[in-house]
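Exercise: predict the fold of this chain.
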Amino acid sequence: MSTVLELRRFKAPRWIHTEAGQWAYESNEEWRHAANQTFGVTERRLLLDEAEALRKRTSETA
C-alpha cells in the first residue's frame, strides 16, 4: 500500500477501475460527464476502451 496520498478533484465511480479510466475521469470533462450518465455494462466497457485510446493518443503526442 502506498503511503503517498493522491489529491484528486473528482472521485470516480467504482466501475472505473483502469488507470486510463481514472485519468480520463480526472482530466476530461466531457468523458467524465458521459461516465456519470452511463449505467449499462456494455456502454461502460466502451467508455473504458475510449479512455485507453485517449490516454495512448495523449502519451504519443507528449
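Check your answer against the key: Residues 19-61 form one domain.
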